[in-house]
Here is the input.
Amino acid sequence: MNRQQTRGVLFLLLLIIALQFAFRNLSFNRTFVPTETTVLQREMDSLRALVSLPKKDTIYPFNPNFITDYKGFKLGLTPEQIDRLQAFRAQNKYVNSAEEFQQVTGVPDSLLHKIAPSFKFPEWVKNRRTSSYVYEKYPQKHFPKQDINTATAEELMKIYGIGEGFSNRILKYRNKLHGFTYISQVAEVYGLEKEVYERVAERFEVKTTPVIEKKDINTLNMYELSKIPYVKYGEGKKIVGLRSELGTLKSFDDLLQIEGFDKQRIARLQLYLYIEQ
Here is the structure.
């Protein structure tokens, strides 16, 4: 093979390699780009579908006996329907089922079907064999009051407005205080409404006074003070600071210099603290 033939063969080989390279690139572009575009288009379509979905209003569980004007408006009740419910409640009566709620307020079936699944009644209402419109707010006079310091969760749940959550909260607060010294301390339970507390006070009283070991406020450090009932987070440090300024606390009225302390709260503190004279 002469030189000219050799050059021809080499040229032919280079041409074949170039054509194969070009063919592969062309084939890759034709398959990859449309595929990438298709995936992107699908993702865009999915996002559009999510945005177009209708938003659902969430109604959290609630006791329909305690609907406020604002709550009723949000639920879709008319002012007249809200007024009927509040007039009914003013007679010391309670609705204990969705059917009773509709009879009292006159709400249409469509609205009742929407909000009734969120009605939350006390457990004792659910477990009753029969329901009644009228709930006796005041216990019969011959019923002796029970000791709040020995009351069980089951006994507390017999009070209208107290379910498992509030009964456990009352017992937990009782343990924190080392026992109730006054029945009025039950009213301090977080979230307990005034009328529910009043029903508790009608059925319970303090019969066994708790035994509380008092501590000298002038000898406790900030961490020990923070563990005392009625001393909020960070106030132990403020008490120690005030004590340093005055040398020593000579009267509980000195605590009035700290923001947040008043006569009533100081009286509660004196159940757990004393000042050595």
Remarks:
- DSSP finds twelve helices and four strands in the chain.
- Residues 129-140 have pLDDT under 50 and may be disordered.
- The first strand starts at residue 146 and ends at 147.
- Residues 144-203 form a domain with the DNA polymerase; domain 1 fold (CATH 1.10.150).
